[in-house]
Amino acid sequence: MVENDIKKRGILDPLVLDALNTVKRELFVPNKYRDISYNDHPLPIGYNQTISQPYIVAFMTEYLQVRRNHKVLEIGTGSGYQAAVLSLLADQVFTIEIIESLGDMARTILKKNNYNNVIVRIGNGYEGWEKEAPFDRIIVTAAPEKIPTVLVDQLKNGGRMIIPIGQTSLEQHLWLIEKNIKGIITKEKILPVRFVPMVHE
């Protein structure tokens, strides 16, 4: 998967490639999909949610430029796969899932497989995680209609956020939000994508 679907498509950061090689994607998909868990496409995980395409996971992770001392916030835990990848790159990963059953399953899988620097909380991603803010990096794995101001506020100066934005899957683009050391915000549209909508409370 990493050689054919990720590296050959331009993902070159060796730390990201190593993380994708290390995390066992089959652990994060329903049993009936385990035979195709390394195919390069999203898979259903229940509750109208999906585990993202491996290439997109790698792309978003590389763009974040996560470093070992970073505190990362993920909005949309889903299966826990993206959090597991991030956990190998960051100091701590705080991840929020609004669907309680999904969050509980992800927490169980992550704990069972010793991803001990990941903390899962059930809650509304639109509110972020104020108690633990600010964050060096923020990744959003479901698409709101516009960039949530609260998440930008919880981004540390010098930080980066990557987020899909769009009202429908046909209109979505991935955006990179950067906050420089003076707190000035810049926004860059990167790539057309298709994500499930970000769920409100």
Characterise the protein shown here.
The protein has helices at residues 2-6, 14-22, 54-64, 81-87, 100-112, 149-153, and strands spanning 43-46, 49-51, 71-75, 92-97, 118-122, 135-140, 155-165, 173-179, 185-192. It is of the alpha/beta class and 201 residues long. It has a 7-stranded mixed beta sheet with strand order 5-4-3-6-7-8-9. The longest helix is centred in the middle third of the chain and has 13 residues, at 100-112. The relative contact order is 0.14. The mean pLDDT is 93.
Short summary of the structure?
25% of the residues lie in helices and 27% in strands. It is an alpha/beta fold.
The total of beta strands comes to 9
* CATH top level label: Alpha Beta
Shape: globular
What is the overall number of helices? Answer: 6
**What fraction of residues sit in β-strands?**
25-35%
Q: What's the rounded overall pLDDT mean?
A: 93
Terminal CA distance reads 36 Å
SS class: alpha/beta
Write down the CATH topology: Rossmann fold
